Amino acid sequence: MPSTNTVIEIIYLVAAALFILSLKWMSSPTTARHGVWAGEVGMLLAVGGTLLHHGIVDYRWIAIGLVLGTIIGVPLGMVHMTAVPQRTALSHAFGALCVTLVGTSEFCLRAPNVPRLMMAVLSMEVILGSLTFTGSLMAAGKLEEFLPQRPITYKGQNVVNLSVLAVAIGVAAYLVVHPERTGLFPVILGVPLLFGVLMIVPIGGADMPTVISLLNSYAGLSAAAMGFVLDSKLLIIAGALDGASGFILSVNMSKAMNRSFSNVLFGAFGQEQAAGVGMREARPVRSATPEEAAAILAAANKVVIVPGYGMAVAQAQHKVRELFDALTKRGVDVKFGIHPVAGRMPGHMNVLLAEADIPYDKLLDMEEINGEFPQTDVALVIGANDVTNPAARTDPSSPIFGMPILDVDKARTVMVIKRGMSAGFAGIDNPLFYLDKTLMLFGDAKGFVGDIVRELGGGHG
Amino acid sequence: MSGDLLTSLYVFMLAAFIGFEVIRRVSPLLHTPLMSLTNALDAIAVVGAIILAGEHKSTLATILGTVAIVAATSNVVGGFLITDRMLKMFKSSRPQKP
Predict the structure, then answer these.
(1) Cβ of B67 under 8 Å from any chain A Cβ?
(2) Residues in chain A with pLDDT values less than 50
(3) Considering its fold, how many domains does chain B have in total?
(4) Which of B13, B31, B63 should we substitute to test contact with A (largest number of A Cβ atoms within 10 Å)?
(5) Cα radius of gyration (chain B)
(6) Cβ–Cβ of A340/B47 closer than 8 Å?
(7) Looking at domain A290-456, does it have CATH number 3.40.718.10?
(8) Residue A447: which residues within 8 A CB-CB, separation 6 or more?
(9) pLDDT tens, A397-407?
(10) In chain A, what are the domain boundaries?
């Protein structure tokens, strides 16, 4: 039945075009929802076309799988916005699980007569798939705080991790030469599962944006490898798009974290932990009350709010919206300056603020906002620390020297809402807090912003 | 086989270049929905799982294929749902062009 096959292939071709359009429309918030629709149509076409496949003799299991998947998928699509990072990590795990299971069955069906090239791509599929599966589960566990967020490091960790990975790759190489040694297959399945766990053990919360992007890239590449095995161009295209997307985001995140690219590739995160601890001393800071903060904000013409993960933890975004409304009503120009690695995944802050109904044209990324700080009356930092540390610009001995930061110290007045004087993720002190122009607002982000709003008399309850 | 593989490599290379060019233009504003969208698209792997489960070549393949369908379908459904929910929240303060 070559004609059915041709029809299926043409359907796949249309689906591939729709997938590319889908990503193209994501370039602007005004067209982004068309992108989702294009993706959905492409997916429906592809799944529908596949059901026509003449090799399918039994639809029962397919139906069961599709129904169960939908039952699990709907709640995963309805999670609260604050849970988006762990949901994303979990979905990387599911994608990788699918790829790994299909790869394993393909091997079992074809063994022991697997051509060498086939064995090579199959190994890549299974290795990438299984390490992404456990790695993503670990990342989701850390984000959901089932597992400790704190990075766990020990001496020689990178050596151990890389040796584990090397074992998997070595065995895979041996299998390519001797595909008849099917008993070794569980090794290239099991060892990467272990590597996935080891890879995430040293990761701390602030590294999560990079790690999630990297896992995204791996998930895409493993799907592309599966496309090679099944000779499915559509799968290769979708996998390549996902892989490229994850790769671009990883590079962006690593630049924003001041990590080199090879640092990202080898997953060598989490070092530099203890750097700078102990060189802190008690220095005087100026603190202010909500009343004083409200008076300063009300007298300002231009305010830039810099949110960080602390805002997400305190669930303060809705209070921040009230502050935004109260100040806007008084004619103050309020914008948001968002660092690429603020939060736990790329774009995390934007989603939380958009959820709180803050118009997206007020959300500016680092390059856009940095030129505006010198004209800014008040920079209000909520739950961010390292990304505002001027030592990254001025102090070559600082571990974060060279990291791109938000230049809040160039604003006329800086206000920092913070629970206490603890150091940020990188464990280094922030000279910003000791500037004459800086006022520390000690307290819980949500409570403090609420108090300021009440002082401004613009709260919604 | 090797000819097919070469064609596949060409497809991969071209798709990767398109991916780089298209995704570079996505504003950082939308990086979270971008990730959930590419994740949903990536779940097109469900196509391979469907054939595997439907061909019924061995019990193991059918079982693994079915589990794979469940995993991928949950990504498709959940991924598109949450991407659309997120994008709905992005509103401009300026009046929208028609």
Answers:
(1) yes
(2) 1, 268-279, 458-461
(3) 1
(4) B31
(5) 18
(6) no
(7) no
(8) none
(9) 877 888 899 99
(10) 82-265, 290-456
